[in-house]
Amino acid sequence: xxxxxxxxxxxxxxxxxxxxxxxxxxxxxxxxxxxxxxxxxxxxxxxxxxxxxxxxxxxxxxxxxxxxxxxxxxxxxxxxxxxxxxxxxxxxxxxxxxxxxxxxxxxxxxxxxxxxxxxxxxxxxxxxxxxxxxxxxxxxxxxxxxxxxxxxxxxxxxxxxxxxxxxxxxxxxxxxxxxxxxxxxxxxxxxxxxxxxxxxxxxxxxxxxxxxxxxxxxxxxxxxxxxxxxxxxxxxxxxxxxxxxxxxxxxxxxxxxxxxxxxxxxxxxxxxxxxxxxxxxxxxxxxxxxxxxxxxxxxxxxxxxxxxxxxxxxxxxxxxxxxxxxxxxxxxxxxxxxxxxxxxxxxxxxxxxxxxxxxxxx
Length: 362
Known about the structure:
The protein is α+β, with helices and mostly antiparallel strands. It has two domains: 34-202, Nucleotidyltransferase, domain 5 (2-Layer Sandwich), CATH 3.30.420; 248-352, General secretion pathway protein M, EpsM (Gyrase A, domain 2). It is built from eight helices and 14 strands. The strands form three sheets. The chain has a six-stranded mixed β-sheet with strand order 3-2-1-4-8-9, covered by helices on one side. It starts with a helix and ends in a 10-residue tail after the last strand. The relative contact order is 0.08.
């Protein structure tokens, strides 16, 4: 939930800044008042610079060298900053304090990127999760490859907490801790602990103007397409009525087609049922050798029973089972040789595979 709120607030800040850039500078000064933003740039452990942005057309920058946080020059500069009319203070860390790495992630919603990075953080960086603060910037979203290009920014927790505490000891509370990207503070980052991140108030007078302008734009976007939406709705209603009539005709045709198909299937089943015994007798005649005589055949579905004489009744089993139609040929009773000893009387039971009469046969 916190990630979603942060994303919404970041989007609103960006949107407000974009709208403000469209307003002429004199108007922004008139409605925005004398407020400004101060950026504290930590260049190295012994070098810090101050950038004041907002009141004057040109931003001022002053560099302060010091030995430690107790240095009088540093303390004097921070005390002076405390007395100025600054509405927002940002601490920007240089590359000496922030590690930047471009990584590739699977395609996920923006709200889940931070959780995914936190899960993979120890693999992506040499730090443990509890020892650092991190934030990210989405560079590219590739829908086809299902990949995300993300710039990961990592700062050691000890460095961030140390300078955050040092500034707070002078009564200075940074609204955001970011990184210097191309020597400029990145507006899209915040390395503050999640519990310490605050909503930036910004310029109140200008915010009211921007909110009013935003409301007007939203109302225009809703009102102007109203007539076209009504026309589209009427056109769609007419199309729906036409489609309903066509569906009725198609339903009638479909019902008739089903009736004709049922009649064809029934006729086909009758034809196949009548031809099945003939096919069985024909196949059996092909497999029985010349020295075998069949004088009785009982036919039932998927099974036949034949009685006859043969010079070699035992060879009939392999001959008949060689047919793809027959299988499981056996003698239910003993084979009896006649008195002359030339032929054998036998009774054989054979299973056969019936071909399906129709694809829809139950």
